[in-house]
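Data card: per-record layout.
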Amino acid sequence: MEETLPVWSLTDFYDSINSQKIETDLQKWSNEALKLQNEYDGRIGSLSGSELGNVISRFERIISAVRKITSYADLCFASDTSNPEFAQHSQNMSEAVNTIQSKLIFLELELASIPEEQYLVTLKDEALAHYEPWLRLIRLNAEYNLEPRLEKLLVEQSPTNRQAWVRLFDETFSDLRFDFKGEQLTETQILNKLTKADPAARKIAATSLSNVLSNNLRLFTLVTNTISKQKETEDRWRGYKRVISSRNLANDVDDEVVDTLVDTVTQRMPELSHRYYKLKAKWLGGETMHWWDRNAPVAGDEGRKYSWKEACEIVQTSFERFDPEMGELAKQFFDNPWIDAEIRDGKASGAFSHPSATTVHPYILMNFEGYSRDVMTLAHEMGHGVHQLLAAEQGELMSTTPLTLAETASVFSEMLTFNAILIAEKSERTKRFLLAEKIEDMLNTVVRQVAFHNFEYLVHTHRKRGELSSEQISQFWVDTQKQALGPGIIIDNSFKPLWSYIPHFVHSPFYVYAYAFGDCLVNALWQVYQDGSNPEFNVHYKTLLRNGGTVRFDRALDPFALNPSKPEFWNKGLDMISSMIDQVEDLQ
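The structure for this 588-residue chain is written out next.
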């Protein structure tokens, strides 16, 4: 009998998209925003610390309420992107909420422009001091802010600018079907075929994937060009010097730190990914292998399948063994309808943990087939979910974790779960295969994501000179992926259009380095955890998660005696991958 997988219930938000309460809430919080604007627009600089604290508290309540509205709309859409009613509702809510938020633009702009001496005086008031971490980031943006009317225009236009192109991308992919031996598969299903044991099946899937993407490449090229140009225009008006600077500022990280990460990983690609894929080619019986064999199962088969119940028990147990409180938090997701794991037509591909609003709780989406990679995905998203629950204590304005630390809990949770599976396995041969699979996962997270970053950098840099053709973008893709994968992987023309299915390039330009940042950071953290040199590790780790966006990444790592501003830090994380490759080098 086929196992029934969980599907989330979104009634903790609203009963349905037709609920009258949505309209009531929109009207209520629109009125509150207008009231705040009428009372304080143009007056922020004249207020005392206690008065500012009260204004920000009111602002926070409005932001929390409207996030609840948009979270519900976004999650409905993710559950079925082919449903036109969900798409329409998501767009309508985005437009309505943006109109509300445009009324509040004045607050952040005026807070950013308060003279420093006056700001420091008002900050002595306890009511305002509570918001200091949020205010610090607001004031960091001061030199890049535009005049209020332009900022308001950008907010109100966003649903019909970049967000509209994101929606077009998502809905297009939702409708695409890929032929596999006469069966019409979704994007998730065809990508899963690339991990199958049968070489012929992988080739058929790769050909189908490439052909469908090629047939739609004109549209994806237009989407990429438009989003890149829109970003370039706004960056230029704001005065950002580099194409990545706006993302780094949002992540509260210096350009130089990201440069160090990217340069360190790029320099070590030959000894990491190049070496590993040459080994894998030999394990598969040749000197090289085609790009569609990169994720072929190392053991020659797809390995055992896990039931949903088994996957939940493994993840739950690994969390509990590390820390009972984290185990209890994870248990809430399994005990409540907060996870959507079913594979079905129209559902968004991939996986995520959506933080929603701090007044509700996170929701996890994934597509569960039952393989070990799915257990790791569950652990990854559960790490995000637990992190989001802990950080919610900071309130709506300070719970969001910058991307520099956003992948910490997810990757660390993967390591906990992988370690639990490895310890439970009795066969040394199987352990080595599991180790090889983990290496591939780490290479995908570190090397591949930095290669994605290098690709994006070329696209956005060259887009400044004019619109890019599909061929130009595809060539950037091929060049950066060859650099990352090395001579062990055969890259032919069928590989060229594959850049177009990566959603991060459209949803969040320059997001991808966060995965490499997080993986290397966790590798360093993991070594501190494993060697027992920090007896208060669990306490410090949970504090890092609880801090949300209140503590900058470098200060957050001080209790672990780690310094991410130095190449040695990143090399420490990469050394862990290299040593794991050493362990499986003679694997047959």
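Known properties of this structure: DSSP finds 28 helices and seven strands in the chain. The first strand starts at residue 178 and ends at 180.

See the next section for split statistics.
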